[in-house]
Structures are given as C-alpha cells and as structure tokens.
Amino acid sequence: MKPNIENIVEIDALNMTQYFEMEGLQFDRNKRKKGIISEIDDGAQMATVVADNKIVAYFEFISMGPEICKICSIQVHPEYQDKYVLRRLIKNTYTLVKKSQHNIFLSATHALNKKSIKFHQQLGFSITYQDEKKILFEISTHKFKENLYKFL
User: Fold this and answer.
1) Nearest-CA neighbor of 18 among 81, 132, 107, 112?
2) pLDDT category, 147, cuts 50, 70, 90?
3) Helix (H) or strand (E) holding 130
4) CATH homologous superfamily for 44-151?
C-alpha cells in the first residue's frame, strides 16, 4: 500500500517549517512531495501510524547499499505526539527494521530540533558530526533493533 503523500507532506510542513524559517528559507511542499515520491521509487520503506483515517506518524528509511541504511525522516503530527502514537510507530518501525541486513543506520536532524535530538539519543544513536545547522547520527543495526525492542 502506497502512503498518502499529501498527508505526509502536511506533517512535514507542520514540524519542519520553523527550522526552515530559522535559516531564512521556506518549506516547499512541492519539493518535499517530489522528494518523497523519489525516495519511495528508489526503494524507501515506511512505517506509519494511522489515526482518524490519516497518517499521523511515519518513519522512513532507505538502503544506501549493502552495509548502510539511511533514515530519511521521522515525523509525528503535532496533535498526536503522545506515548501511544510513538509506541505504535516504534512497533511498526521494529517490524520493518528487524528484517534489515544492513550494518549501520544513519540519521540527521536540524541542530535546533531538540525533540529529534532527544529521540535519537533515547534510541541509542551516537553523534558523528555536529555544526550550527545539523547533527549527524549513527547506530549499529544490531543495537538499533535491541533499542527499538525495549520500547515495545
């Protein structure tokens, strides 16, 4: 089943517009829509949580080759940021990630996105690079699977 791209773009816009504006940029819905479609066409996998007949949270990742998997996005709609939705997202993510044969998962976030930084740290990611705009993370797939499982 293909996800509702417009629904996902809406979640991204709600969560990311402020970080774009901090850099003097605008969140471009059309650009993001094309990006998501391209990622899906390139094989990205997506765990989602549906409530009220719409996607309210998603976790998207894509293989970067046999060793590395990159997390494209982790988003939860602001009106649904509760432990129940997050737990369901982690459960659905675990179902996909446990099949992964990759060695490492990579991720990134805006340096001012405190919620994302905290979430990455709770999942056991290590910071590999940081500057005033972004933070890069990594975690072994084995450790990632273990840590996701602990949240179930």
Assistant:
1) 112
2) very high
3) strand 126-130
4) Gcn5-related N-acetyltransferase (GNAT) (3.40.630.30)
